[in-house]
From TrEMBL:
Source organism of this protein record: Pseudopedobacter beijingensis
Residue ranges annotated for the HTH cro/C1-type domain, each copy included: 42-85
Record-linked InterPro entries: Cro/C1-type_HTH, Lambda_DNA-bd_dom_sf, TransReg_Diox_bact_type
Pfam assignment, any one: HTH_3
Secretion signal, residue range per the UniProt entry: none
Protein name from the UniProt record: Helix-turn-helix domain-containing protein
Keyword Transferase: no
Lineage, highest ranks first: Bacteria, Pseudomonadati, Bacteroidota, Sphingobacteriia, Sphingobacteriales
Keywords from the named record: DNA-binding
Length: 99
């Protein structure tokens, strides 16, 4: 436990485990974290809309396998496709924030 003795907040823990912002390890962690968040938001919104992956794919001109990949955090998604899935398929607006 000595490795974590001086950890006071989540940011310090992430830095300890994945490195400082801008490093390759940290960038990969941040990318994976964002993909996880998007995948969970998509799953929740789709289920709340009472749609199957197949139905959502049909509404948005994609394939069920593509929706599945995104929901499992394994797909690489373009912003235009993400907007189409949420706005056309789920009737949800997307807001982007850049920090």
């Amino acid at each position: 436990m000595k490795k974590y003795d001086n950890i006071k907040n989540f940011d310090q823990l992430i830095e300890l485990e994945h490195g400082k912002l801008g490093t390759e390890s940290r960038n990969k962690y941040e990318e994976n974290s964002q993909m996880f968040i998007i995948s969970e938001m998509l799953k929740e919104a789709r289920k709340n809309a009472n749609l199957t992956q197949e139905q959502l794919a049909q509404k948005t001109g994609t394939k069920k396998s593509y929706i599945s990949k995104i929901e499992n955090g394994k797909g690489n998604i373009q912003i235009s496709t993400l907007i189409r899935i949420f706005e056309l398929g789920l009737n949800k607006k997307i807001g982007l924030t850049f920090l």
